[in-house]
Every structure is written in C-alpha cells, then in structure tokens.
Design goal:
The complex is a heterodimer of chains A (522) and B (127). With 522 residues, chain A is an alpha/beta fold. Helix content of chain A is 38%, strand content 18%. The longest helix of chain A is centred in the last third of the chain and has 20 residues. Chain B folds into 2 domains: 55 residues, no CATH class; 69 residues, Glutaredoxin (3-Layer(aba) Sandwich). Chain B has a 4-stranded mixed sheet with strand order 2-1-3-4. In chain B, helix 1 packs antiparallel against helix 2 and helix 1 packs across helix 3. Chain B is elongated. The chains are: A alpha/beta (522), B alpha+beta (127). At the A-B interface, helix 1, strand 1 and helix 2 of A face helix 4, strand 4 and helix 5 of B. Strand 1 of chain A pairs antiparallel with strand 4 of chain B.
Chain lengths: 522, 127
C-alpha cells in the first residue's frame, strides 16, 4: 500500500473531530419526478445545498461500496415543508430519508485547472481525464456588478466571420444574441468564434466557455473534437448538460458557466461565454417550475422566466480599470420556430441583449452561408468595438449591401435597367459572394481588412460573382507569399495608414496584372 | 378520499378527542355517506400518519444494540445539548450503526454512530 495513502489516512484520523455537533435535518415526505418534499429544515435558505442520507438502513460496507454523495438544491420554501430538486439519481431518495443542511449555497469549482476540460453543471469532470482539484469555489448565483464598477465596451472580440466583424462588430463585455431556426448555422458561428481566438496573442486571448444546454451528447462530443483538432480546446472549458440529464442540471449549467467566467474576469482576463441554447434552458426551467408547483404563466412558463435570463446575462460585463479591466462577452443562442422572432422567449432575450445576429433559412438554402441577414442584424455597441483598420473599410461594404438589397427586387427586370443600376447590382452580388465563408474557417481580422479593402478598391471590378471567392483566396495567398509585411503591419498596428493603403493599392494592381484569367471586361 | 378521512381522524385524536369516540363517530359518518368500504384503508393510513407524527415530534434515539445502558450518559448529554432533557424518547434498533447512537429531536440531529464517523472519514480520504 502506498505510504502516501497511509500518511493521509493517519492525518485524517488524527484530526478527526468526534465531539457532538447538532445538525439541522429534515425528513423526506414525498419524492417524485426529481423533486423531493422535505419536512423540517426550517432554517434552510433558498438555493442552499442539502445532503441526502443515502446510507440509512444500509450496512457500512454497502454504503462505502456505493459511495454516492447525493445533493439537493432548495428551490421552494413553503409553510411546513421545503421542496428540493435532486442533483443526481432521484431513485436513491426514499420516503423517511434524513436530509441534512450543508449551510452552503450552490457553488462550482473554478481555477486554471478547469481550462481544457469538459465538466457537468456541478463542475465535475466528465471527460475521463481525472478529477479536478480546484482551490476555489464560486457561487452559481451572484449579483451582477453595478454600474459604477463597469467601463464602456471599446475593445473588439473578433469572430473570424467577415460579415459579423465588418458590419455587426462585437465588443468585449457585450451580449450579442445569435438567433435563427434550426440548422441555420448558429452553433457554427459560435464555434468559429472560439476557434478564431487562437489568432489573438496569448496575453489578449479570451478564455472561452461553451455551455451546451440540452444538446445531444454526440453533438457535444463532435464540438469537443472540432475544438481539439483546431487547437482551441487548450483555452476552452465545455460545460455540458445533455438532453439526457434532469432539468435542474440544464437549469444550472449556464449559471455554472458564467460563474467559471467570473473567476477569470476578476483576474483581469477576458472571457467569452457561449450559451447553446437558451431556448432549451427556458424549457428546462419551465419543467422544473411546474414540478415545483409554481403557478404557470404565459405559454406555461413561470412568471420569472424573464428574470432567469436577465440575471444570467447581466453578469456579462466589462469591468473598470480599478477592478482589473476583465470582461465577460456573452453569445447567447436562441432557436426560433419558423422564423418567429416575435415569440415569447426570443423577444425576452432580444430585449436583454446588446444586439442580435439573425440567421435565416431562406438565405441558408440559397447558399448564402453564413446565412446572416445583415439588414436586420444589429450590434448596439457598433464601431466602438472595431479596430481602426476595420472601421475604415467597413463603411463602404455596408452601403453597397444596403443599396443592393433595395435594388434586388428589380433584378427580375434586368434587361430593362440602366447601366448604372446594373453595375450596382453586379457590385452587390460580388460583395454577397465575398461575405460567404466556409464552416470552420474563421479568418483573422487583418486578412479580413485586406480582403474588404481589396473589394472596395477594384480588386473585384470586372470579375464575375462566381469567381469572387477564388480571387479573394488567391489574393490573400499572394499577400502572404509576396507582401507579408502588409499583413503584419495591419495585424500589429490594427490600423490602415496611408502608407499601408498605398502598398495595398500597388499589390492589387500587381495581382490583377498577374491573374487576368479571373477577370472579364464588363 | 381516504387520505382526507385519515387526516381528519388523526387531527381529532391529536386535538384531544378520545380515540374510541373519534373512531365510532367516523364509522357512523362513513355509513351515512355510503363510504364504509374505505374503513380499513382509512385505519391503515391514519396509523401511518400517527406513527410518522409521533416520530417527528418525539426525540428518537437509534442504537445498534438492545443493550445500550453504557450509552445512557452520552444520550442524556446529547438531549441536554438539544434542549430536550425532560422529554421521554423513542428507541430504535439499527444494527447497521455498528455502535454509538444517533439522536434526533424534531429538526436537529446528533449522530455519534460508528457508521457515520467511518463514512465521513472515508469520504474525506477519498475526496
């Protein structure tokens, strides 16, 4: 037997406290559907953890073999009883079972050790890489930082998606909703954003937390594999509450995710939290509330469904310099049914967040991917969350696309249009093609700037829309191979000086000269 | 329906009505309403409710062995700690405790059984 284990046992026995200490206990009166009603526990607090005495009536050997520590969470304080949701296997709970108060509110282990791991809603490792021995716990429920503790959002978080970074820029500390029907690419945008953070310098790279709520385990496993393959898992935490788990775990998962994020934020670091998705979170909360016999409201959701999401998302913040300047950026995801953004939960979350990215099935089916409707997507933070370089190039693309959208209706009359209108339509088509991007292929911001600058300054003039992506790819490869100093200058300086613009113009001319095969003369 | 009758019967008895009177009156009520078939089920439910209430309100000591005289002093000390010195207590035997005792007085518990101590030690070591 290892001496380490012997020494540990000896230490525990020596420090064992056998003096009598009264504990507050209650007795299970009824249990069903994951909810236990307990008589006693008069001084129990809301959201307090309680411990079920599962070893009652069992021999010591059996109790040690099973070794299950079963906790519950107090969620209803009633006149004579408390109602507790069981955080584990509720079949182990029996009528008459003794339940002890722990005196602690529900908390989750946090720390550097948790980065790169997959955990459940209670912070327990589920990736088979060993238990996590964290030195600190953070409470799952916490009051958000006040107004005076925050500073304005002025630093960008790059998603790697051209359409978003140019026209719907997201800042560190912002909440930007990703909303759309099933299969429109919401999770893809979130995962690409996480992968894109590998292009950030290590000291500026945000810790990413992906909260999977009610997802299939196979989907979570494939996301984990994708992140690992892209080298993104080393700075990512995955908090998983799968569809097979009880509704309390789905309810807790996003709060655990943001609690983990708060640990890093308070150290002055930036954090990105993705909640995938809050629609399933609302459904789980509804299920749990109905089982707790709370009165149902609209669509059977409990009356505090708005508060559920508002208190979660308010914990995203950009802290003031005095508090370290850290931030939590939230990307909540909402799944709509048949594009109905005026439904109950979507409208709730839209009113909470600082902007939304609309993904449409029609655009997806037309091959426009990411299927962003840039006309109705918005970021309320706006260009404060853009680098100077991106600000300089994004104005024209926004204008061109706005004009294109207006003229789209006339496209069926193409033969009857004047030359100027035809040119604008062709230009719009080229920009739409430029904004298309393959899944799992986030583009660092300096390449986006070079690409959009090129499009604004004649790189695509004379080219057919079908050739746009090929031209873009070739142009960027040309810059990387022959003019790497241009990309490096944009990357480090984050600005587009006159000098750099001049160099880019020369590069565009040289590229067009060398690649005449891509261009027709319109 | 039987639960409602059982609860009413138990509450009457606990309020001070003699059990014989309460039972006789209940029987007559059931006959007048045509619910006589529920009589045996009501008695079973009422018995369970009474036992539960008694267990919840009276101090309960659980020991491993019927011969627990050596624990009397410790039990009295624990009763004093929980403010129940003058109350009589129910004794239950649970061999799985191994030794020692546990005392529950309404919402408070003092557990000095060998089983609880060893389980706590085991959980600390294996955490």
């Amino acid at each position: 037997m290892s001496t380490v284990i012997i020494d540990r046992i000896k230490k525990e026995i020596e420090s064992l406290n056998v003096t009598a200490k009264p504990e507050e206990v209650g007795v299970v009166v009824s249990v069903g559907d994951g909810v236990a009603e307990i008589e006693g526990l008069e001084k129990a607090q809301m959201m307090e953890m309680v411990l079920f005495e599962t070893s009652g009536g069992e021999s010591l050997e059996t109790a040690m073999k099973r070794s299950v520590v079963l906790f519950g969470l107090v969620l209803n304080l009633e006149e004579d009883t408390v109602k507790v949701v069981v955080l584990g296997e509720s079949s182990l709970v029996k009528e008459g079972m003794v339940v002890r108060r722990t005196g602690k509110l529900l908390s989750v282990p946090v720390g550097e050790e948790i980065v790169g791991r997959v955990v459940n809603a209670l912070g327990e490792a589920i990736d088979g890489k060993g238990t996590i021995t964290a030195k600190k716990n953070m409470p799952i429920e916490r009051v958000a930082y006040g107004v005076m503790d925050r500073s304005s959002v002025n630093e960008p978080i790059h998603t790697g998606v051209k359409a978003i970074d140019s026209m719907i820029p997201i800042g560190r500390g912002q909440r930007e909703l990703i909303i759309g029907d099933r299969g429109t690419g919401k999770t893809t945008i979130a995962i690409d954003t996480i992968i894109n953070q590998k292009y950030e310098p290590k000291d500026k790279r945000p810790i990413c937390i992906y909260v999977a709520i009610g997802q299939k385990r196979s989907k979570t496993a494939s996301i984990m594999a994708k992140l690992e393959a892209a080298g993104a898992l080393e700075y990512t935490v995955i908090v998983a509450a799968s569809a097979a788990e009880a509704s309390p775990m789905l309810f807790l998962a996003p709060f655990s995710g943001v609690a983990i994020g708060e640990y890093f934020m308070e150290q002055g670091k930036d954090v990105l939290v993705v909640f995938d998705d809050l629609s399933k979170h609302a459904v789980a909360y509804r299920q749990m509330s109905l089982l707790l016999r709370r009165p149902p409201g609209r669509e059977a959701y409990p009356g505090d469904i708005f508060y559920l999401h508002s208190r979660l998302l308010e914990r995203s913040a950009k802290l003031s310099k005095e508090l370290g300047g850290g931030s939590i950026t939230a990307l909540p995801i909402i799944e709509t049914q048949e594009g109905d953004v005026a439904a109950y939960i979507p409208t709730n979350v839209i009113s909470i967040t600082d902007g939304q990215i609309f993904l449409e099935t029609d655009l997806f089916n037309k091959g426009i991917r990411p299927a962003l409707n840039v006309g109705i997507s918005v970021s309320r933070v706006g260009s404060s969350a853009q680098t100077k370089a991106m600000k300089k190039v994004s104005g024209k693309i926004r204008l061109e696309l706005a004009q294109f959208r207006e003229l789209e209706a006339f496209m069926q009359f193409a033969s009857d249009l004047d030359e100027d209108t035809k040119k604008r339509i062709e230009s719009g088509r080229r920009y739409v093609e430029l904004l298309k991007q393959a899944q799992g292929n986030p583009m660092p911001f300096y390449k986006q700037v070079a690409s959009i600058y090129g499009a604004n300054n004649g790189l695509l003039a004379g080219a057919e829309a079908n050739n746009v992506r090929l031209i873009e790819e070739s142009f960027l490869a040309f810059l990387e191979r022959d003019r790497p100093e241009i990309l490096t200058t944009i990357e480090t300086g984050r600005d587009l000086t006159e000098d750099t613009s001049g160099q880019l113009n020369v590069a565009i001319a040289d590229f067009k000269e060398a690649h005449k095969q891509y261009y027709n003369q319109f | 329906m039987k639960n409602v009758y059982a609860t009413a019967l138990v509450e009457n008895i606990l309020a001070g009505v003699s059990p014989e009177t309460a039972l006789a009156n209940l029987k007559m009520l059931l006959q007048s309403r045509g619910h006589s078939r529920l009589w045996s089920q009501i008695l079973k439910t009422a018995k369970r409710e009474l036992v539960n209430k008694l267990e919840r309100t009276s101090p309960q000591v659980v020991v491993a062995d019927a011969d627990h005289k050596h624990l009397d002093v410790a039990i009295k000390e624990a009763l004093t700690l929980l403010g129940a010195t003058d109350e009589s207590y129910l004794v239950k035997i649970d061999k799985t405790l191994g030794g020692g005792f546990s005392l529950r007085v309404r919402g408070q518990l003092i557990d000095k059984s060998y089983k609880r101590t060893l389980i706590n030690l085991y959980e600390k070591i294996t955490k």
